[in-house]
Amino acid sequence: MKVLILGVDGYIGWSLALHLLKRGHEVAGVDNLIRRMRVQDLGSSSLTPIQSWNRRNAYALTKFGPQQWRSKYHIHLGHGPSDVIADVIADFSPDAIVHLAEQPSAAYSMRSAVDAKATQRDNVIGTLDLLWAMKEFAPRAHLIKLGTMGEYGTPSCDIPEGKIPERCLGGKWQDEDLKEHCPMSGLMFPRTAGSFYHISKVHDTHNIEFACRNWGLSSTDIMQGVVFGLNEYENLDEITRFDYDECFGTVLNRFCAQAIINHPLTVYGKGFQTRGYLPLKDSIQCLTIVLENPPGDGEYRTLNQFENIYSVWSLAGMVCLAANELGLYPVVENIPNPRKEMEEHYYNPAHQKLFDMGYKPTTDIKGEIKKLIEQILPYKDNVRRSVIVPKTTWV
Amino acid sequence: MKVLILGVDGYIGWSLALHLLKRGHEVAGVDNLIRRMRVQDLGSSSLTPIQSWNRRNAYALTKFGPQQWRSKYHIHLGHGPSDVIADVIADFSPDAIVHLAEQPSAAYSMRSAVDAKATQRDNVIGTLDLLWAMKEFAPRAHLIKLGTMGEYGTPSCDIPEGKIPERCLGGKWQDEDLKEHCPMSGLMFPRTAGSFYHISKVHDTHNIEFACRNWGLSSTDIMQGVVFGLNEYENLDEITRFDYDECFGTVLNRFCAQAIINHPLTVYGKGFQTRGYLPLKDSIQCLTIVLENPPGDGEYRTLNQFENIYSVWSLAGMVCLAANELGLYPVVENIPNPRKEMEEHYYNPAHQKLFDMGYKPTTDIKGEIKKLIEQILPYKDNVRRSVIVPKTTWV
Questions:
Q1: Which of A275, A327, B159, B219 sits in a 20 to 30 Å window from B80, CA-based?
Q2: Is B113 in contact with A121 (Cβ distance < 8 A)?
Q3: Lowest mean pLDDT segment, chosen from A83-87, A239-243, A304-308
C-alpha cells in the first residue's frame, strides 16, 4: 500500500513511518520541521537524542531503498499556494494519507493571539489545502486524520464514537433496553472543546465530514486519547522524539521526565481530570489496523482511540510505583491548574470500534511506564527544569 | 452606546451604521472594502448606485459629526499582525462590537481551494484576532456576531436556538407534555453545514462559545436567515449595496433582479428547499434590539433570526405575483442544482427569543417584494445577465 505521511518527522509520524516500512508498505513523507523549531523556541528539545532529518532520511533510504521510501518534500500546509501539496499527491498517488501535520499542543494555542492563530491556520487551513488536493488528485484515497478525544470535552452524558446513536435516553448509548429513538440520531455528537488547539480539531472534523458528504472522499477521523511512551526502535536512527515541556509534553511523559530528575510530579488542580490513554506502540498498532481496513467509498467514520481511562492522580500513582521499583522516589505536588477545565467530572466515552477491528491493547500500563522510565533514564542530565512548570494560563 | 461595526461598508453594515447613528449611538466603522473588490472580480457590481467609501464617510461625518461617527480604520482581520484591531478597540473602547467583516458567500467558498481557504482564513482567523483583542482591551463589551441558520443544515428533527434543550424526545422541543430529560441537554445542537462558508460560521460559533466560557466574554451569536430587500434610505448616500450575482446575490434579491429584466427566475433543483427569511429592515431592527438588550457578563447566547420560512417555489410565486402587479411577467425555470443539498426536507427551527425581546416582524412579505422591485427597476439596464446563472458547482 502507498501511504503518504504528513508530519512524518513527529512523535507519531516517525514511529509510524518505520513501522509501515517494516511491514512492506511504500511510504512517502512530508514535514516542514516546525515542531523541532517550536520546541527549541520554548527553550527545550527532545529528551531522546533524535537524529537530524537528513540523517533520518538517509537511514530510511539505505534500509528500505528508494522504491519503498521517498522524502523530498518540505511543505508548510496551509501557507503558500495550494498546488504544492496537490503536486505531491499527484506525483505519489497514495492509497492512504495519514495527516499528522498539525500543531498539537493545547497550551501552545493558549499562549497568545499569535500562537492561537498559528494553530488554527496550520491545522484548519492546512487541512483545507489537503482536502482540495485530494478532491482533485486522489479522490479514492483514504484520509486518516488524527483528532483528539479532547474534541468532546467532558459532558455529563456518555460520549459515543462520533455521531449521536439511535438510542440515547438516559445517556447510556449501549443499553439495549432503551428503545426510545433519539430525534438527533445520526447527527454529529456535540463538541465542547477546551482550548483553541482542541477547537481546531473540531473545525477539522467539520471540514472533513463535509468533504466526505459533499465530494465522496473517504476518511477515518480518529479521536485519540493521550499518547505516552516511546516507539520500538532498533537504534538511535529509529528513536522518536520525546517532549516533556509544558506545551508539547503530555502528562504521562512529563511525569516520567520529572520522576528521573526527582522533580515533584506536578498535578494540575485537584487531579481528578479523567482522560483516555494509550501507549505509543498501541497508537501505531491502531493506525496500522485503520490503514489496512479502510472505510467504504465516501464514508466518514469516527473512531475513539484509547486503551483505558485514568485520572491524573491514578497516573501519578502509577508513575511513583514504577519509579520506586527503579530506586527513584518522586513526590506528588498539586499546583494551581493553569487550564480552565472541570477537575471532577463524569467521563464515559465509547471505544469499541477499534477493538472490533482487532486492536489488542497493551493492558500492562504499569509495565509500560516502568519501561519508559528506564528508557529515558540515561538522558536525565539533559532535562531542563525550567521548561516543565506551566507558564501559560488559560485565563 | 459606543458601537464598533466591523464590515461597516457592507450590505448590512452600512444600513446598521446609519440606523444606529440616527438613534443617537456613537458608531465607529471598520472595513477593508474587499467585498467591493470581490464582486468586481466576478464581473458584477452593486445594482444600487452605492457611493464610494470616502463619500459615505464624508456624508456620515457631515450629518452626525466627529463625536458620533468615526472611521479611520482599514483593517483586514485575520491578516497581518493582531495588534491592529487591538489598537482600534483600545482606542475606541466600544460597549458593543458588531462583527460583520466576513466573507458571506457559500458559492464563493466552493469555487476553488484558494477561495475556500480565503473564506475560512478571513472568517475564522479574523474572528480569533477579534476575540483576543476583546480579551485584552474590551472584556466587558458585547460581541454581536452574525452567523447563519445554514450552520444547522436541514436535520430531520426540530432545530432549537443554539443548544440542545431540556426536553427533546420526539424532536419537539417546545412541547410541555414531554417530561423526558435529554441527556445531551445544554450541549451545542449539532451543526451540519453545507459549504465551506457555512462551516466557517460553525467554526466561529465554537471559537466564540469557548471565548465566553473560558475568558468570560459576552456574546450574542445570531443564526440569521436569508436577508432580502433594501434599507430605508433618504438619499443615495444612504442606500446600501444590492448584489444579484451567483455568489453574493441571495435568492430573493436575485429573483427580483431577474424579474426586472424579464430573465426566468432560476429555481435550483426541485425548489422545495426551505429556509427562514427576513427583510433587511427587520435584520436591522433585530440587531438594534440585541444591541440594546445585551446578555449577562460571560453569557454566550444564540438567537435564530428570521421572520418566516418559505420554500424556493413559494418565493418564486411571490415574486411573480408582485412583478405582475407592476406589469412584469417573468417565467420560472428549474435549472440543475449547482449545490449539493436536500431538495425536499423537514424544516422546523425555533425562533422565539427575538420575539420575546420585542421584535415586531414585517408580516407583509409580498408588499416588501413589490417595494423592492419598484426600488431596483430604475437600474434595470445595469443588470449583467452573465453573472446571474451559476457557474460554481458543489461537486
A1: B219
A2: no
A3: A83-87
Contacts of B80 (CB under 8 A, 6+ apart): none
* Residues of chain A contacting B133 with CB distance shorter than 8 Å: 113
Which of the residues B48, B119, B148, B154 is marked catalytic? Answer: B148
For B4, phi and psi rounded to 5 degrees? -100, 125
Residue B197 appears among annotated catalytic residues: yes
ipTM: 0.96
- Whether residues B128 and A112 touch (CB distance < 8 A) is answered with no
What distance in Å separates residue B224's CA from the closest CA in chain A? 20
CA-wise closest residue to B212 among B145, B287, B123, B290: B145
pLDDT confidence tier of residue A80, bands split at 50, 70 and 90: confident
Q: How many CA atoms lie within 13 A of B348 on its CB side?
A: 10
Average pLDDT over residues A30-50: 96
pLDDT at A180: 59
**CB-CB neighbors (< 8 A) of B216 in chain A:** 395
* Count, residues in chain A: 395
Contact A340 B121 (CB under 8 A): no
Tell me how close the Cα of A26 comes to any Cα of chain B, in angstroms. Answer: 28
Element (H, E) at A185: none
The reported pLDDT for the residue numbered B378 is: 97
Closest-approach residue (CA) in chain B for A210: B194
User: Which position has the grid cell 467585498?
Assistant: B35
Residue B184 to residue A207, Cβ atoms within 8 A: no
Q: Which residues are within 8 A (CB) of B363 and not within 5 positions of it... i.e. 6 or more apart?
A: B307
B250 is catalytic: no
Q: State the amino acid at position A187 in one-letter form.
A: L
- Per the structure block, which three cell numbers stand in for B143? 460581541
A376 touches chain B (CB under 8 A): no
- Run means of pLDDT, 10 residues per run, chain B, 395 residues: 97 98 97 95 97 96 97 80 88 97 98 96 97 98 98 94 76 51 88 98 98 98 98 97 97 98 97 97 98 97 97 98 97 97 95 97 94 98 96 95
Q: How far is the C-alpha of B158 from the C-alpha of B83, rounded, in Å?
A: 42
pLDDT, tens digit (0-9, with 9 covering 90-100), for A52-62: 999 999 999 99
Residue A393: active-site member: no
Contact status, residue B223 vs residue B303, Cβ threshold 8 Å: yes
Catalytic residue among B11, B197, B244, B310: B197
Candidate from A183-187, A303-307, B46-50, B332-336 with smallest mean pLDDT: A183-187
Residues of A in contact with B121 (CB under 8 A): 121, 125
pLDDT over 50 at A170, yes or no: no
Task: Return d(Cα A164, Cα A147) in angstroms, integer.
Answer: 18
The residue among B366, B262, B361, B362 whose CA lies nearest residue B314 is B366
Compute φ and ψ for B384, nearest 5 degrees: -100, 110
| pTM, full prediction | 0.96
In DSSP terms, B146 is beta-bridged to B222
Please give the domain boundaries of chain B with CATH numbers for all domains.
2-155+190-387 (3.40.50.720)
Q: How confident is the model at residue A176 (pLDDT cuts 50, 70, 90)?
A: low
* pLDDT for A96 beyond 60: yes
Count other Cβ atoms within 10 Å, centred on residue B55.
Answer: 12
CB contact under 8 A, A207 and B199: yes
Instruction: Give the minimum alpha-carbon distance from B293 to chain A in angstroms, rounded to a whole number.
Output: 27
